[in-house]
Amino acid sequence: MTYEKEKRYIIPFSDVPSPRAEMPEISVDERRENYTEVETGFPEEMAIQEAKRCLGCRRCLGCALCWAECKPEAIDFDIPDEELELEFDEVVITKGQDNAFHPFNPQLCYGKYPDVITDLQFERMLSPTGPFNGMVVSPLDGEIPGRIAVVQGNTNGDEEHLLSSLILGVNESIIALDKTEDLEIVLISPLCQSFQEKFLNEAEKIPGLQIIAGAPESVEKGRDAEPMTLKYLENSEQKQETFDLIVILTKPKISSELKSLSKKLEQDIV
């Protein structure tokens, strides 16, 4: 931990995915006997690259803005860490906001393209108290998408999983369509029998939503400004369409940390 000044510190990062771009400068000889600006500024290509650079913001950066803005002065960086022992009559372990999920097809390029997100990330986007204030926007450039694909990540899932994920996909689509004008959403997934019998007829009546019984195969993307191409199977026939945002329906699982805690406390997870 490197202290910059009192009550302000910077945590060094060794795993930032992309290094900061260096500002171009004119040479020492060009600076002699004149008042020419030394820093020339970023060229357009470098400026765009720098604006898109991931800073790896996963923990406190030590900027101290929270401390500066906290009028009650409730934040004190000098408080030392301490361990507390608490006694309870009973402990209840819940899944809570555990974001773990079973692996799915890597060809869907989750983690590679910013505009490929999970159903949980989409749910946070749609929340009025979430990071996007309930607006449906591209995580890459902040633009409002015109076409969204909601696809099944685990196409070989059991009946219970397919039913719950399909219902979630339809519900999220309804919210997104209600929030965004001229939006089109295509839901692509194997359709389990219980969904077809109980919900398909009503789901197909939702304006702006198209439901396809199929299986997503891969996602491809050209330049940053171009939409993504989703390839999928429908009735054993390969098809492809372009989308601005792709949402993957995941199959939740209990993380190893929760399992370990459950075993240590001898309590079931509810």
Any chance you could write out the topology, listing elements then pairs?
Elements: E1 2-5, E2 8-10, H1 28-31, H2 44-51, H3 65-69, E3 116-118, H4 119-126, E4 147-152, H5 159-179, E5 184-189, H6 193-198, H7 200-203, E6 209-213, E7 215-221, E8 228-234, E9 237-243, E10 245-249, H8 256-265
Parallel strand pairs: 3-10, 4-5, 4-10, 5-6
Antiparallel strand pairs: 1-2, 7-8, 8-9
Helix pairs in contact: 4-5
Describe the model.
- The chain is 24% helix and 20% strand.
- Helix 4 (119-126) packs parallel to helix 5 (159-179).
- It contains eight helices and ten strands.
- It has helices at 28-31, 44-51, 65-69, 119-126, 159-179, 193-198, 200-203, 256-265, and strands spanning 2-5, 8-10, 116-118, 147-152, 184-189, 209-213, 215-221, 228-234, 237-243, 245-249.
- The strands form three sheets. The protein has a five-stranded parallel β-sheet with strand order 3-10-4-5-6.
- It has two domains: 2-69, no CATH class; 106-249, FAD/NAD(P)-binding domain (3-Layer(bba) Sandwich).
- The chain is extended and about 80 Å long.
- The chain starts with a strand and ends in a 5-residue tail after the last helix.
- The model is unreliable at 1-11 (pLDDT under 50).
- It has 270 residues and is α/β, with parallel strands linked by helices.
